[in-house]
Every structure is written in structure tokens, then in C-alpha cells.
Amino acid sequence: GISKFGLVEMTRERIHKTAQTLSYQDCPYCQGKGKVKSALTMSIYAVKELKRYLLKNKSVRQVNLTLNPVVIDEIIKGKEALKNLEHRLKAKINLISNPAAHIEDIKIS
57, 80, 97, 106: least surrounded by Cβ within 10 Å? Predict the structure, then answer.
């Protein structure tokens, strides 16, 4: 429509999700009152942290990555990245599922 000032008024409908809605999910610990990173976001972050750890500790040939099971599921979906990391850095990576771990917890040992 046209406003009282003679300007055309238009609205825009959002058809794509925002970066925040893609990267975060409702917090399952507080029944949605807060936000935590999504499993996909945490899987990407965990692989990056693992890479950083292995590059810093080049003598390590086996490493354990302990995560929440939903994060491990996301890593397994993109398992090629993990296999490439193992091959490139010549290290065996063990994924350890810990259902008691917070979704944002990462333990590398």
C-alpha cells in the first residue's frame, strides 16, 4: 500500500533461517529458557579442537575424544573429515560416548 506520505510500503518475508537458529538449539537442560550450541556446531568445533591438539602434540599417535552421543552422531555423519585427519596427522582417533556429558563438553586425552 501507499503511506500517508506517498511512499510505497513493503514488507519482507524471511524464508531462510538465521545463522543463530542454525548454530544454536533450545537448551535441553533448562527446558528451552536458554541456548546451547547445536550438535552440528559442536561436532565441527570438536574436530577443529582435535586438529589443534594433534598439531600441537605431534608425538601423540592415539587420542581419545569424549563427547555427548548426539555430537558423536554428527561427527560420524561426516566421518570423512575424521578419516582425513587421522591419515594426515598419522594418529588413531577414538570417539568415546559419554551420555552424562553436557552437549558443549569436549574432552581430549
Answer: 80
Helix axis angle for 79-89 and 69-77, nearest 10°, is 80
Contact (Cβ atoms closer than 8 angstroms) between residue 103 and residue 35: no
How do beta strands 24-26 and 107-108 pair?
unpaired
Higher pLDDT, 81 or 35: 81
The residue that leads in pLDDT, 53 or 19, is 53
Q: Shortest CA distance to 40 belongs to which of 82, 77, 65, 66?
A: 77
pLDDT in tens, 25-36: 877 777 767 778
C-alpha 84/C-alpha 40 separation (Å) is 18
Q: 92 vs 20, which has greater pLDDT?
A: 92
**Using alpha carbons only, what angle is made at residue 87 by residues 86 and 93, rounded to the nearest 5 degrees?**
15
Cβ neighbors of 37 (< 8 A, separation 6 or more) are 23, 24, 25, 45, 103, 104
